[in-house]
Design brief:
heterodimer, A: 242 residues, alpha+beta, 7 helices, 9 strands, globular, B: 442 residues, 2 domains, 4-stranded mixed sheet, two-stranded antiparallel sheet, 13 helices
């Protein structure tokens, strides 16, 4: 059991971008569908990657496969998609930071623990709208700003599907799809539908992908519920606006 | 004259009411004094080994009244009177006297009532680990103290009475008391599940893949090893060497507890696993019985009941700790914990998990999902595994597609905090009930 507990904090060298070592350590190993992405419209790829201190590896990557911590692809409409295997990468600060390059859509999602999904858009450092879901309760959907016109029909359709599948008693979470669909309505990208390969990314100094596995002590493991992201931390962040 | 009669009658009535109040107050005071005197006598008898009993409250008061009566012409001797045969209250023969006097014959209704009360006291003792006696004695001692008695002495006397009453019940209403203890222990163990569920409860999703026979076999094996390990630790702590029978019993009992920690549907019965309290209680009771049998002695009901109670309590304590800890982890760690439990399941099924990058599973109605693992036996694909952790985990729309399509060999593992609770609580129970067991035959 100790081996299992310890393995929680054995980190794979997948997180890149501007995440610091301490950030990576606090999040633990990123995994499957605990991902995030940012789509920026009209930005030059080289400028964007320079700002993030990233370069392309040239290797084709399937987002979500964990074969590379980050990847990118260009899509119609002048959108550049930056995909991360780390749920926390495309957080609010990242989206606001990148929105100086053009209209930016951010999306975070996980379907393993709390069925969290977030979509938002920003321009010139200012957030335009935000849609957030977490299965607590299942119909929870927090909305701020002025979401795109398609939002109402997407919401109504998926609320109806949830109701037809048993509502609160259902073992499936259809509401989880609402932020993903809203983001797709704006930039045309949805991670579990897009079949075109992405290109892998690595840090300019190549350090992230060459990183080793790090461990923390038993005390750190036992106290992790008090640490970042833990449920017992004294200063909790507002989960509506992650 | 006639005009004064009502006034005189009213005065007489007032006098009668006053007299009645005074009389009632005297009765209450004498009752308290009698009770106190009886408890002092019973406590003294318990400390000095005298066999003095007063099984019912009325017997206690009668005993006290006789003591007070005897004190009147004499000095204030604390010693109780010698037993007289006319009352229920009697000096019982000491254990060295073989012909113990049975209780005097009573009406049938009274006898049934006494049997019922003895059973109820047995149930209460079992349910509260004997704490009920202490609480009751404490409350009575506080009342005694409020009426001038020394609190410490009063508590000692009251406890002595409770112990004497338990002994009396065991001797004269043995069956009723045993039945009561069974009911009390059963109620106590039944309460463990809801108690444990207070922290991070939650149900597994319906699509979660149930345990197969091979996984149950592994649970039994791990439980058996845990039982033997607990016996080794216990022997080291006690600086003794257990018999072969002790180790065989520990292995068998641990296996029973391990099996009880898993859940599943068995015919029309559904056993909801993941409850460390139940696993610990069953493991404790089974270990006790198996050790008695393996050591060629008759199983002791008392020992099994105590092992079940203490094992259950330790199981719940460890279970609550495991639940709370795992439920408090950051989401990324929870997801990883779910994947690790999936790897354990894959191992228990006799398969191997793949390492390295994940790959997509394309779905018939469009889209794709990224399962967490693929398991293989040799080169043959066995399962496509989706791992989930926590009370809020559900299937996403894509995963529901995969489940309903159905995607061949799609396995959904849903780990809950209570599963972690079992991992922590069951070993705690395995060691815990041994620490309260003297290991001696009874």
């Amino acid at each position: 059991m100790l081996g299992i507990i310890r393995s929680l904090y054995v980190l794979d060298p997948v997180s890149v971008g501007s995440s610091t070592v301490s950030e990576v350590r606090s999040r633990g190993r990123t995994m499957g569908w605990m991902c995030s992405w940012v789509a920026v419209q009209g930005a030059a790829k080289s400028e964007l990657l320079d700002a993030l201190r990233l370069v392309e590896t040239g290797e084709p990557v399937e987002p979500g496969s964990r074969s590379s911590g980050m990847s990118c692809a260009e899509r119609p409409g002048g959108w550049l998609i930056l995909f991360s295997e780390d749920f926390d990468w495309a957080d609010r600060d990242r989206v606001l930071e990148l929105s100086r390059f053009g209209l930016t859509v951010g999306c975070q999602f996980e379907d393993k623990v709390e069925m969290t999904s977030v979509a938002c858009a920003a321009r010139n450092g200012e957030e335009l709208w935000r849609v957030f879901h977490i299965n607590d309760p299942i119909y929870r959907l927090d909305v701020s700003g002025d979401p795109p016109g398609e939002f109402a029909s997407i919401r109504d359709k998926l609320f109806r599907e949830q109701e037809e599948d048993g509502g609160e008693e259902s073992d499936a979470d259809f509401i989880h799809d609402i932020p993903l669909e809203v983001a797709k309505a704006v930039c045309g990208y949805r991670a579990d539908e897009d079949e075109s390969p992405f290109i892998g990314l690595m840090r300019i100094d190549g350090s992230a992908d060459a990183g080793g596995r790090r461990k923390v002590g038993l005390l750190g493991i036992l106290l992790s519920p008090f640490g970042p992201g833990g449920k017992w931390q004294l200063r909790r962040r507002d989960r509506s606006f992650m | 004259m006639t005009g004064r009669q009502p006034a005189r009658r009213a005065g007489a009535l007032d006098n009668i009411e006053l007299w009645m109040e005074q009389r009632n107050a005297d009765v209450r005071r004498l009752g308290r004094e009698a009770e106190r005197a009886a408890h002092e006598a019973l406590g003294h008898a318990a400390r000095t080994g005298q066999q003095l009993v007063a099984p019912r409250p009325s017997d206690v008061r009668a005993l006290g009244a006789r003591i007070i009566e005897q004190r009147k012409p004499q000095s204030k001797a604390a010693a109780p009177p010698a037993g007289s045969s006319s009352s229920q209250i009697a000096r019982r023969p000491t254990t060295s006297q073989p012909n113990a006097r049975p209780p005097a014959p009573r009406p049938v209704v009274q006898g049934v009532r006494d049997q019922f009360l003895a059973g109820a006291r047995g149930a209460q003792d079992a349910f509260t680990f004997g704490l009920g006696d202490r609480l009751y004695a404490g409350a009575q001692a506080l009342d005694d103290a409020a009426h001038g008695a020394d609190l410490s002495n009063a508590y000692g006397s009251r406890m002595a009475v409770e112990r004497a009453r338990d002994q009396y019940d065991a001797r004269h209403y043995g069956t009723a008391r045993t039945v009561g203890q069974v009911v009390g222990a059963g109620a106590q163990i039944a309460a463990l599940g809801p108690l444990e569920g207070v922290v991070a409860g939650g149900a597994r999703i319906a699509q979660a893949t149930p345990l197969i026979a091979r996984e149950f076999a592994v649970l039994g094996g791990v439980g058996g090893a845990s039982g033997v390990g607990g016996q080794i630790v216990s022997d080291i702590a006690r600086r003794r060497v257990g018999s072969v029978g002790d180790y065989v019993g520990a292995g068998v009992g641990g296996a029973v507890g391990g099996l009880a920690s898993g859940g599943g549907r068995f015919g029309v019965t559904r056993w909801r696993g993941g409850r460390a309290g139940y696993a610990g209680a069953l493991g404790g009771a089974a270990t006790s019985v198996a050790q008695d049998l393996a050591n060629l002695r008759a199983p002791s009901f008392d020992r099994a009941r105590e092992a079940a109670s203490v094992g259950g309590a330790f199981g719940v304590a460890g279970g609550l700790a495991g639940r709370a800890w795992s439920n408090g982890l950051p989401n990324a760690a929870k997801g990883k914990l779910g994947e690790d439990f999936s790897r354990l399941r894959t191992w228990a099924r006799g398969d191997k998990s793949t390492r390295g990058p994940k790959s997509r599973e394309y779905l018939q109605e469009g889209g794709w999902t990224v399962p967490d693992q693929r398991s293989y036996r040799g080169t043959m694909l066995r399962d496509i595994v989706e791992s989930k952790f926590g009370r809020s985990a559900r299937l996403s729309k894509r995963q529901l597609q995969a489940s309903e399509q159905p995607l061949p060999n799609y396995r959904v593992d849903h780990t809950l905090p209570r599963d972690v609770g079992v991992v922590v609580g069951f070993p705690a129970a395995e060691y815990g009930f041994r620490s309260f067991d003297d290991g001696e035959p009874r």
